[in-house]
Amino acid sequence: MRRLIALLCLVIIGLSVWQLEADRAGLTITPLPVEGGTPATLFLRDGAGTAPVVVIAHGFAGSRQLMEPFALTLAQAGYVVASFDFEGHGRNPRPMSGDVSTIDGTTRLLMEETARVARAALAHPRADGRLAYLGHSMASDVVVRQSLDSPPGDAVIAISMFSEAVSADAPPNLLVIAGEWETMLAEEAIKALRLADPQANPGEVVGDPAHGTGRRAVIAPMVEHVGVLYSATALNAARDWLDASFGRDSAGPVAQRGGWIAALLLATVGLAWPLARWLPAGTGPALPPLSAGRVLVAALAPALSVPLALAPFEIRVLPVLVADYLVLHLGLYGLMTLALLWYWGQLHGQFPKRIWWIAAAVAIFGIAVLGGAIDRYVASFLPHAGRMVIIAGLALGAMPFLLADGILTEGGKARLWRVVLVRVAFLGSLGLAVALNFSALFFLLIILPVIVLFFLLFGTMSGWVGRRTGLPAAGGLGLGLVLAWALGVTFPMFDAAAF
């Protein structure tokens, strides 16, 4: 059975990679040198003539990879496409800086970086001098404002937009796209449309894109803040808007990558099951069972006490927003849980010699195999050297936390109510921390979906390892490194002196 499942997963992985790589067929994709060293990528269709430049900017905690559906679609349509990593994001080693509370602070610095990328792309021999900006979420405000600066944009596509810089007639040729399930931002899209025409409805075109007066709002069905980037509705609307703005009639495939990316990641996770079955089998130590009352104490005591204990303190050492707090929260949470488990005799026999190489195998699979697929097709996962210190710091908290989580949930053997209780209690603990200090910790809210996804994907794999080897601590230790890595490469780097 395990050989059959392994073969099936490998077939799905191979087919998914083949389909995803096919989106790049006929394109030349090369680094774009940019003043100041901003990492940028240039996408050109082979054999195409001169064309307008489209500068693509990602949102907060994003990277170039996340915007590839638009980059590939517009490049296949013949546009000269430049995508880049903002400072503090992806492969960009320079941290974000400036005052985040003012337009002339961090926003101005991001605008200047966008302008440098635009100038570099406009200098390419294939550029015909016309320019469009496309930005998602945080970058929607950046590209709206930059289009009114220098170099100015002839068209703007703002995805999941919130910007106070939009007026009845600026920026020129504005297309606003939002997902149906991001309700507030969908309302903002309609609001921007009705600044130009109070009677207009989503999907209608106001003004004339050929004369620089066009405006349109598109609501992509059944998608949210990230799913909108993979929506065929959004991709087609972006290409059609640029064609209308620049008087072009483009052809070429639309990079509908979401389904294949999901298949790739699920098959890669699925591959972990037969690999876990090849690990040496074990039954684990004979331990006294934990009563429901003790499980409740172990789940809720740290969930309530850790955010209350840390609320008075504010520490900034690591150059990543809220990373210092996360290290302390994860580490103290894990140590308190481990102390209770030790007191109840649950740590005896949990650390035989073989645990270390099994934990290393879990970490390697999560970081190199699954992480490699994520880095190629989803978002930046391979760090530059400056992030290694951040990953090491996060590991000091993540490893004891997930070690305790693995033992408390018995490496996947515990009943479902127990697993759900343990994980929900931790998520609630982070929520309580935010409530106690919203101004300093509201960025933790962005982590919550990441943690949920982590538990679903990596927690499932850890359960397979724990049930096979009888060593729940092995999966916990390995996943601690994976979680530290995932958080360390995802969150933007900030210049601590700026805050």
From TrEMBL:
One of its GO terms (molecular function) is aminopeptidase activity. Residues 53-160 form the Serine aminopeptidase S33 domain. It comes from the Bacteria. The keyword Transmembrane helix applies. Keywords: Aminopeptidase, Hydrolase, Membrane, Protease, Transmembrane, Transmembrane helix. Pfam families: Hydrolase_4 (PF12146). The chain crosses the membrane at residues 258-279, 291-313, 325-343, 355-374, 386-404, 416-434, 440-459, 471-494. This is Serine aminopeptidase S33 family. It comes from Roseinatronobacter monicus.
